[in-house]
Design brief:
2 domains; 15 helices; about 525 residues; eight-stranded mixed β-sheet
């Protein structure tokens, strides 16, 4: 079997021959691009064959099959994941405009699987009934120098798939379709919010002080200001400044960055959405969440019932049903025998040890209870709203009027993980500053995930922010309902830099770092 280098060398010779003929193997212009909105796709040609039968059509795509038999040839080309046969007879391709990247029949040996071509001719059916383009013109659009794997078995290494996702999607339709659904997931999220009166306002990724979540930030440096900046860990505080600015319903969809480890449900970089709604509260937010998620599920998967890992089934229910509410305080009491509002740190640490969870030297109540909670939630199938969450776990939420130890916060739990977090927003600048100071003390004691004191945000609150509800979810929701891990759920997950040995040998004269 030929090596990759040998295959590439052979294709380079063909590339050189094309140049000698005066053919540009990488033209900018395609005839299909002259009128891309009306040029039919392969799916349309095949689904509506009667409309196009015996008409002259142009098709474009990647070659995935080549068969030659004397003076005839058959090419199979793929456009996205639809294929069509191109039939070529020598007399039909005796003339070619090389300057326009066209090829003669005698030049077909310069084509390989993986090349992109354009074929023009009548749409017919072959003797076997296969829809076929009888080509009167073949134009090369892009010459491939490396062969694409043709089967899933030939490209089954997970690390290789992640590094070369552009190949993964070429040989695995399941993966290809997944990222179309991922696009629909965010499109439908946006569509629902816009249809409910929200406006989308993009906010900065770089922040002088970052907040809105318990997470370790990435740090970068801006040369123009000679100052360090943080990559945002949340959209929250800038969007709430927009409520101060007079906007009533705002949202943003975009990346956030948390300098933490990889897991099946977490990536240091991921896409998320947050909305903020003036004059709404957490009760309104819960009802809105049910409507939002059902709409997104309908649009993305056309179902509300999902069969997930470990034989777990999640049903989002009909529009007339409501998801149950579970008390955080009660659930923690049942699972661990802890009164999370009043228990001592020694009692909490005992439970960490008992359940084989990490106990750090700088352990504090907030972080310790959160560890126990993350273990507990894995047993909750949901969907269910977790309520009665202690105020010390959420420094940005209002407290319940009848019990100030509890926040007006709800977390949506589904398939054992947290799908969203939302609450009635704290808009009292004096109380907010007090809580920021408490968070600052935790940071000074060694808790790097405690929130930073954002004095600019306090200043904004002093101009008054209306009562509001805020809500956010990340693409973790997509990963869970799609039934994949985090890295399987994004096109290009971050990985350690690595240069393929063949590539390194090919480019020995270049410093690849």
């Amino acid at each position: 079997m030929a090596t990759l280098r040998e295959l590439r060398d052979e294709r380079l010779k063909k590339l050189e021959k094309l140049h000698e003929l005066g053919v540009n193997p990488y033209p900018a212009h395609t005839d299909a691009a002259s009128d891309p909105d009306t040029t039919p796709k392969l799916t349309e040609l095949k689904n509506d064959f009667a409309k196009y039968q015996d008409r002259n059509v142009g098709v474009v795509g990647r070659i995935i099959g080549i068969r030659t038999h004397g003076r005839i040839a058959f090419l199979t080309i793929k456009e996205q994941w639809e294929t069509i046969q191109v039939f070529i007879e020598e007399p039909a391709l005796n003339d070619a405009d090389y300057a326009a990247s066209e090829l003669k029949f005698s030049n077909l040996n310069l084509l390989d699987n993986g090349d992109f071509i354009e074929a023009e001719g009548k749409l017919t059916k072959s003797r076997t009934g296969e829809i076929t383009v009888n080509a009167a013109k073949i134009k090369i659009l892009s010459k491939s120098l490396r062969p694409i794997p043709t089967t899933w078995d030939g490209f089954s290494n997970k690390e290789e798939r992640f590094r070369r996702r552009y190949l993964d999607t070429n040989v695995n339709k399941v993966v290809y379709d997944r990222f179309i659904r991922r696009s629909h997931f965010w499109q439908s999220t946006r569509e629902f919010l816009l249809s409910n009166g929200f406006i989308e306002i993009n906010i900065p990724v770089l922040e002088t002080t970052t907040g809105g979540a318990d997470a370790t930030p990435f740090i970068t440096h801006m040369d123009a200001l000679d100052q360090d900046f943080y990559l945002r860990i949340s959209h929250e505080l800038p969007l709430k400044r927009l409520l101060v600015a007079g906007y009533e319903k705002v949202f943003d969809i975009g990346p956030r960055f948390r300098n933490e480890n990889y897991s099946d449900e977490h990536l240091p970089e991921h896409i998320s959405m947050e909305w903020y709604w003036a004059y709404a509260d957490w009760e309104v937010g819960m009802k809105f969440t049910e409507r939002l998620l059902r709409f997104v599920a309908d649009k993305t998967w056309a179902t509300r019932t999902f069969s997930l890992a470990n034989n777990v089934e999640v049903n989002l229910g009909d529009n007339n049903s409501s998801w149950p509410k579970l008390s955080f305080v009660d659930e923690m009491k049942k699972e661990y025998g802890l009164d999370v509002l009043n228990s001592s740190m020694e009692e909490i640490k005992d439970q960490l040890v008992k359940h084989k969870l990490e106990v750090e030297q700088t352990e504090n109540r907030m972080r310790s209870v959160d560890k126990l909670w993350k273990k507990l939630r894995t047993s909750i199938i949901g969907p269910a709203f977790m309520v009665d969450i202690p105020a010390y776990l959420q420094p940005l939420a209002k407290t319940q009027p009848d019990n100030p130890q509890l926040s007006e916060q709800f977390n949506l739990i589904m398939a054992g993980t947290e799908m969203c977090k939302a609450y009635s927003e704290l808009n009292d600048p004096v109380e907010q500053l007090k809580r920021f100071k408490e968070q600052q003390q935790l940071r000074q004691a060694g808790d790097k995930e405690a929130q930073m004191l954002d004095i600019d945000y306090i200043e904004a609150l002093e101009y008054a922010m209306p009562p509001a509800c805020g809500f956010g979810y990340s693409e973790r929701l997509f990963w869970v309902l799609e039934g994949v891990t985090a890295r399987e759920g994004v096109p290009f997950p971050q990985m350690r830099r690595e240069i393929d040995s063949t590539t390194a040998n090919l480019y020995k004269d270049i410093d690849l770092g």
